[in-house]
Amino acid sequence: MDDERSPVGVFTLTDAGGSLEDPGSRLRYWQDDNAFASMLIPEEIHDHDFDYVIAIDYNRVTGVPPFDWSRPDGAERGGGIWLHMDHGDGTSACVTVPESGMKTLLRVLDPARRPVVVMGDRQHLEW
């Protein structure tokens, strides 16, 4: 959100939600038809972008719905980075996954195991 850049690093995955009912998520899941409406110009291709989302814990408060726009590190650092449904034409910094993959992730990511996503290329990640 705001800077249109994907963050680089290792980020936890703690909260999920979507416009559709919970498909059996092990992560906290917030269902809300309106909160997950596409923020893009209404086009059929984007109608289902946010059917399922998993918040990437970059510049966000954990334990709150993915659509909470709090930015503890400041708005200039961006935020609102999610795993969400793939629509085939890129994002503004998020990561897209096909519907079957989103359902699988929601069902298997176990918060007790502290799931993470690694983002960025080898050159920019520190090992």
Can you tag this structure with a few keywords?
127 residues; mainly beta; 6-stranded mixed β-sheet; 1 helix; 8% helix; globular
Q: In percent, how much strand structure appears in the residues? A: 15-25%
Order of helices and strands: EEEEEHE
The helix tally amounts to 1
Distance between the termini: 27 Å
Main β sheet profile: 6 strands, mixed
Spans with pLDDT under 50 lasting ≥5 residues?
none
What's the total count of β strands?
6
Overall geometry comes to globular
* Secondary structure category: mainly beta
Can you describe this structure?
The chain has 127 residues and is mainly beta. The chain is built from one helix and six strands. Strands 1, 2, 3, 4, 5 and 6 form a six-stranded mixed beta sheet that branches. The longest helix is centred in the C-terminal third of the chain and has 10 residues. It is globular and about 35 Å long.
Give a short summary of the structure.
The protein has one helix spanning 99-108; strands at residues 9-18, 28-31, 53-56, 82-85, 95-97, 116-119. With 127 residues, the chain is mostly beta strands. Strands 1, 2, 3, 4, 5 and 6 form a 6-stranded mixed beta sheet that branches.
